Amino acid sequence: MKRILIFLSSFLSSFFIAFLLIHYAALPTLQAYPRLAQMIERFSYTEAVLIAFIGLALFLLIVQLTVGRLSTIYIYLVYSVYFFLLFVVLFTKAHRYQAISWDWLDFTRDGSRGWIEAVLNVVYFIPLGSLYGFRAKPAEFVFLALVTITGVETIQYVFYVGTFALSDILLNFLGCSIGYLLLKRVYPIFKE
Asked: Can you give the three-state secondary structure of the chain, one letter per residue?
């Protein structure tokens, strides 16, 4: 009975966290970009699908932590959807837009919207850092994360789909580092 209550409360809290993240942070920020706003408007169920995916992913992670077994299928499914969503967020925001920002703290100038985007830039890359944490040693992780993030920023600039921003590199690396450290802390539970 106690385990059922734990799973039920985990289920509810996972979807509540997903709702807060999507409804109050991700969607309002993404809708500030006209191309993403058009895509979101085209599919009326976008918010519900994102909440369902994030909520279910969090809940299944909690279940696996509780049971002490990490499913390979879970990892493949979550990362398949994650990479698709990351691609959409990173490469479809702007239409024929190109800029460079050398300011490490440019997000501090845009008020609350800038801070929300900064937090989302951290959150978006936590799963990538976790993925690197499965195999990479700390030095390898730093190299891989920086090369990946700098590559993403360069692609955005070269293909006219965004800004090459040092602040994004800093925030994305922070997110990767959080994910890497979380996995290094949690993964030993599954090995025991």
From this structure: CHHHHHHHHHHHHHHHHHHHHHHHHHHHHHCCCHHHHHHHHHCCCHHHHHHHHHHHHHHHHHHHHHHCCCCHHHHHHHHHHHHHHHHHHHHCCCCCEEEEECCCCHHHHCHHHHHHHHHHHHHHCHHHHHHHHCCCCHHHHHHHHHHHHHHHHHHHHHCCEEEEEHHHHHHHHHHHHHHHHHHHHHHHHHHC
Instruction: Tell me how long the chain is.
Output: 192
Q: What is the reported pLDDT for 192?
A: 59
120-159 pLDDT, tens digit per residue, is: 999 999 999 999 999 999 999 999 999 999 999 999 999 8
**121/90 Cα distance (integer angstroms):** 10
pTM here is 0.82
How far is C-alpha 70 from the geometric centre of its chain's CA atoms? 20
Return d(Cα 183, Cα 179) in angstroms, integer: 6
Is 121 within 8 Å of 171 (Cβ atoms)? Answer: yes
